Amino acid sequence: MSIAAFPETQTPASRVLYINSKDATRFFNDNQSDFDLQLEEPIVIPDHHAMLMSVFSAEIPYSFYNFRIGVNCRLDYSVTPYNVAADYDANGFLDLTPANAISLILPEGNYNAVELAAYLTANVVAAGPLYPLEVTFDSISMKFRFRCIIKGLRVTLALKNGAATGTPEAPGEDMNEELGFDFIQLEGDPFVELSPGTQYFNGFSNPTIGGGGAVVPGVGTDTIRNGPFLTAPTYFLFGDDVVDMTNSIRSLFVRTNLSTSSVLDSHIGGGFSNILTRVPINAEPGQIITIQPRDGDVHKLLLKLKAITTISIQLTNQKNQIINLNGLTFDISLKLEFIETKRLKDAPNLRLERQKEFASAQEKLQEQLDISKLKQKKSIKPKK
């Protein structure tokens, strides 16, 4: 049977599909944010119709962390004597084999800038134990600031080590961006030191090291002031950039397998993406992130399908990395609207068309004859 011969069907009323991730048919990587849902009854789209899908509402717990193991919880550093460079391998990365080179692993969790600064100050140690590094957050410039507080020591932050396992789009597991040091522009590891006698403070955010561990003059000095400085409470090495504690989770994205040709995404070069909607983070950690789009502010996916039997849902950041809700579930409601599409008309029946035209002409001719007879009757006067 041809499409033209299909009977017309009535447009169904819109529907709302409520989904809780705990009801998923299958989870991927044991993650509540990446799942398939098998529908007990398929959603059938009638002939000559398409479907518009949009997010009706969503409730997502803010249970994900801004610092995660394997992503941004690691800080490699070295503590050496004043004016002595850290040990580097042939590839220019800090050598972690000497005893004075340490990898600090930050426990997973949600940290603000003040909490992160306090943790680093209390856990970057030298032999002794000594705590030579002071990290504070400057709320005016919104940058971290660093200084060495023990005479005769240098603390080198091995931020280039993060470049060994990462890319500008997905930096390695070091906390470069969070500390305010540009991943792309980073050429030398920043360090701070305090002289043993005269108490000169040096701070370099991007140093070039010459012979004997000394910094090449005029290269890579603090971006705020030119060192070296006499020690004083106001002298710090500032991070290059404003603090970014979001770890690239500024928004959440709901993705679906049902459409890949409706949304363009700059993260993949402006190509088509499977994004269904963006969810702004409008809550604090421990609260519930909610969205209830208004009618005039809803993106609708056009689905040209015959039926829906399975829906795949992913909750990601803007880099398409799955969000870990740490064991919690989330709810999302999808609005399904049916719209009528253009139908192919039946092929014209030429004989029938001719018959209709002939009948119409006959009707017009008869009308003209009737009018003529009526005029004739009116023109004939009765005899007296």
Q: How would you describe the overall organization of this protein?
A:
- There is one protein chain.
- This protein is mainly beta.
- The chain folds into three domains: 3-63 and 250-340, Jelly Rolls, CATH 2.60.120; 74-238, no CATH class; 356-384.
- Helix content is 12%, strand content 32%.
- It is built from three helices and 21 strands.
- It has helices at residues 113-123, 176-179, 350-379, and strands at residues 15-20, 26-28, 31-44, 49-61, 74-81, 101-105, 133-138, 143-148, 153-157, 191-194, 200-204, 229-230, 237-238, 251-256, 263-265, 271-273, 275-280, 288-291, 301-303, 307-316, 331-340.
- Strands 6-5-9-10-11-12 form a six-stranded antiparallel beta sheet, with no helix packed on it.
- The radius of gyration is 36 Å and the shape is elongated.
- The model is unreliable at 1-8, 166-171 and 217-231 (pLDDT under 50).
Helix percent reads 10-25%
Q: Could you give the order of strands across the largest sheet?
A: 6-5-9-10-11-12
How many beta-strand elements? 21
- Main beta sheet: strand number and arrangement? 6 strands, antiparallel
Total number of domains: 3
- Cα-atom Rg, whole angstroms? 36 Å
List low-pLDDT spans.
Answer: 1-8, 166-171, 217-231
| Tally of contiguous helical segments | 3
Q: Classify the oligomer.
A: single chain
Overall body shape = elongated
Residues in β-strands, percent: 25-35%
The H-and-E topology, N to C, reads as EEEEEEHEEEHEEEEEEEEEEEEH
User: Could you say which structural class the secondary elements and strand pairing correspond to?
Assistant: mainly beta
Question: What's the mean pLDDT score?
Answer: 77
